[in-house]
Records
---
Amino acid sequence: ETGVTQTPRHLVMGMTNKKSLKCEQHLGHNAMYWYKQSAKKPLELMFVYNFKEQTENNSVPSRFSPECPNSSHLFLHLHTLQPEDSALYLCASSQVLQSPLHFGNGTRLTVT
Amino acid sequence: QKEVEQDPGPLSVPEGAIVSLNCTYSNSAFQYFMWYRQYSRKGPELLMYTYSSGNKEDGRFTAQVDKSSKYISLFIRDSQPSDSATYLCAMPQGGSQGNLIFGKGTKLSVKP
């Protein structure tokens, strides 16, 4: 098990559903990230939080809503998604913004 | 031109072979260069991390950066079946090392 835990591992949801992805890091890091990994595309940064404050939103559609209640937990709330949102969603953390990322194993999301 | 280009492969080699994985990039401002390894159904894990030009060696792995050519390489000596994974190059953009731009990844298979 890595120091970054993501739940659930797999999620299937309809386009009208609302669901949330959860990430927890046990590494004492202060920065947390959401990345999206789609087939045949590079990893794409979605959001960055530093000390619970959002520092980056990479032009992500509003149907994705992040929440960072503390430096150890990060959520991604999903609603009215599209089939093209199906992907692997990866959470990562780092000690501070100027240090390498530690990734979780991701949530495989399928939107039907 | 994309910011980071990486041949997706797949690349198949026999056990014991020397493997060369490469990325090119377009932004001459990039200073830090990373290689991540991603096993199937897992998140990426940091493998090598170099600053500016030159070589860095860690066991069977050597990372090489040629800033004049905007070209980075990862060499794996005496490749093992356990090296079978997707290898992703990444570079931080902006002032944050957490805001990484990734290549698409090269899928490597080492056959016993």
---
Amino acid sequence: DQQVKQNSPSLSVQEGRISILNCDYTNSMFDYFLWYKKYPAEGPTFLISISSIKDKNEDGRFTVFLNKSAKHLSLHIVPSQPGDSAVYFCAAGRLNTGNQFYFGTGTSLTVIP
Amino acid sequence: DADVTQTPRNRITKTGKRIMLECSQTKGHDRMYWYRQDPGLGLRLIYYSFDVKDINKGEISDGYSVSRQAQAKFSLSLESAIPNQTALYFCATSDLRQGVGDTQYFGPGTRLTVL
């Protein structure tokens, strides 16, 4: 069973608008969450993270929101740029316990110029 | 130069063959990981190693083995390849001492096809 789910395989957004990518998890013990971005023919690269003691973390155009009661996190990109077109993976796990991190299936974002 | 390198980048092999995928890193990280990516399934952890003497099974270790030859090298072996091991394989590293959580740094991937 997938412990981390990204239910939208793809998303298209106009340049300059907001992109919202969603992620749900099932394990209430998860306390650390990350977003990775992947371009074709490259490995995923770290984008932004959040620990369960926060409900929001911001880094430039990227903001991650965490709703622990709903076991849901989202990544907001504002404003979206064509270079943001990539596959976005969320990952969740338990920090500092040596446990593995679980990845979602990814959402392919296309930003239309 | 890339911090995490994987060889080969592409490999086509036949059922029953033994194959090794290699990963090297220059980041000085202690932790190394092997993942596979399949369409619709995301990345799944095969094995991970927290130092040279520590090897752990991940979510889908059956049919695979690993070797941590040095801090910088982590190899994944398929003793007898089968077609459902056709996938994109990623190596990753991480270092908790950086104080940013278990952020992982990925290699470029190896595309393996088993005929």
